[in-house]
Amino acid sequence: MLMFREKRPAVRTLNDWAISVLNDAGAIKECEEHGWMQDGGDPHARERAFDVARQDPPAGVSPEAAAVAIAEVLDFIGDTCPDCLPEVPSGE
Ligand SMILES: [Zn+2]
């Protein structure tokens, strides 16, 4: 898991771009308490983010590569904040 607030590089990476697109589309959201990015669980918001990737990729990046970057970010972002998860009772 990555904490996106940390070690943000000065140069904007494709990953950063994908995160900001997903954020703008409402597909991911940041936990207000812990700062972890979470999947918003909204398929329409994801679709909007992919539309942006295909129609308006960053300079020098193909629409395909931009869409892959979006998919990769979605891949490693969980749908819940790990620090917000309740303790799982054992022996259930
Ligand atoms: Zn949290």
SSE layout and pairings?
Blueprint: H1 14-25, E1 28-30, E2 37-39, H2 43-55, H3 63-76
Antiparallel strand pairs: 1-2
Helix pairs in contact: 1-2, 1-3, 2-3
The chain binds zinc ion (ZN).
Tell me what the structure shows.
The protein has 92 residues and is mainly α. It has helices at 14-25, 43-55, 63-76; strands spanning 28-30, 37-39. The chain has a two-stranded antiparallel ribbon with strand order 1-2. Strand 1 (28-30) and strand 2 (37-39) form a beta hairpin. Helix 1 (14-25) packs across helix 2 (43-55), helix 1 (14-25) crosses helix 3 and helix 2 (43-55) runs antiparallel to helix 3 (63-76). The longest helix has 14 residues, at 63-76. The two termini are 27 Å apart. The site of zinc ion has 7 residues, from loops.
- Morphology call: elongated
| Weakly predicted, low-confidence segments | none
Question: Level of helix content?
Answer: 40-55%
Strand order of the largest sheet: 1-2
Structural class of the secondary elements?
A: mainly alpha
Q: Assembly state here? A: single chain
Distance between the termini: 27 Å
Present as ligands are: zinc ion
Overall pLDDT, averaged? 86
Give the strand tally. Answer: 2
Q: What is the chain-wise order of helices and strands?
A: HEEHH
Strand content: 5-15%
Report the sheet with the most strands, covering strand number, pairing sense and barrel closure: 2 strands, antiparallel
Number of helices: 3
Rg estimate, integer Å: 15 Å
